[in-house]
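Issue: ligand-bound run for FE2/S2 (inorganic) cluster - logging full I/O for the record.

Environment: standard queue, default settings, no custom constraints.

Inputs:
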Amino acid sequence: MTRIKFDDQFFESENDETVLHTLLRNNQQVPYGCKAGACQCCLMRSLENTPSEKSQVGLKDTQQKQNYFLPCICIPENDMTIELPNTGATWLESEVIEKKPLSENVIFLKLKSKEPLAFFAGQFVNLKNEAGVIRSYSIANIPNSTHELEFHIRILPNGQFSRFVADELEIGMLLSVSHAQGSCHYVEGKSEQSLLLVGTGTGLAPLYGIIRDALENHNHIGKIHLFHGSRDASGLYFEDKLREMEKNHSNFHYTPCLSGEVKSRKYTKGRANQIALEKFIKLDRWRVYLCGQPDMVLQTKKMAYMQGASLKEIYTDAFLS
Ligand SMILES: Cc1cc2nc3c(=O)[nH]c(=O)nc-3n(C[C@H](O)[C@H](O)[C@H](O)COP(=O)(O)OP(=O)(O)OC[C@H]3O[C@@H](n4cnc5c(N)ncnc54)[C@H](O)[C@@H]3O)c2cc1C
Ligand code: FES
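Outputs:
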């Protein structure tokens, strides 16, 4: 049994329990989002022992050296004394300027940040509502001078944040937005390189931003192949925009895939990742982007590597929840 000292109180952790879980079980008010080591909302600092390597994955070298760690993926091996970072996360106020349905369970949300927010298309931000609920969402547009951010938000039946977006969030209301994070974005240079992008559901959001960035801002001339997967046609919510993009850019190719019943020849039957990897067997020198459902992302990353893609050229965003 290990003991966690936080805010001058001691908490006993149960077997295999993360530090975050111990704190929440004891009704401590600490920030968190994904609970899976992706969003970095829960960042804390250990004041005694060096935290486990695993709990520091994705943090900057300087943060690691100062014993910062992610309590949501830290199972303590020794007693710990911890504190919230005194730097505090910087949140920018943003106003909802557009909200509309993209499909039965996906909402398009446009925010206007009151201050400039630097980002690469494809990165994600954490959104926080007034109740303090924080979740990560990928930015679906490209950087612009009006500080606008676009999101595709899938509504889960009992999802705390997504239901808030669907039922309560209105135009004119404010949300807090974190700085942009993540390495899943277009990388300048190698404009002749072939790009393979695979996304399921709202995994399309970052991919759409990346493709626009490649074509509109970087004049990417290599082939760009997007495979978007959904169970049924209603989930292919950007079909018209992507077909239009295909008409305007001869190097862009869009393959909408349906894992459920296929009623039209416009769609390819099967899972987007399998169809993509069967079509492109050799991925040496390709750049690969994988976004959406975590199992799909992990499995496809392994397969893409086995089919020749370099791990350095595989960019992923697993929508952990
Ligand atoms: C880096 C990153 C980027 C992301 N980008 C996006 C994005 O662009 N768009 C987007 O929509 N989401 C995105 N997500 C996911 C998002 O952060 C939230 O996890 C998601 O919106 C759910 O939050 P919630 O508060 O609505 O649900 P929560 O209250 O957190 O509930 C989630 C729970 O719902 C359960 N669940 C999962 N799927 C289903 C289902 N089909 N039916 C019923 N229950 C289910 C899960 O088991 C989980 O326990 C991203 C996540 C990460 C980590
Ligand atoms: S809650 Fe810990 S990293 Fe997201």
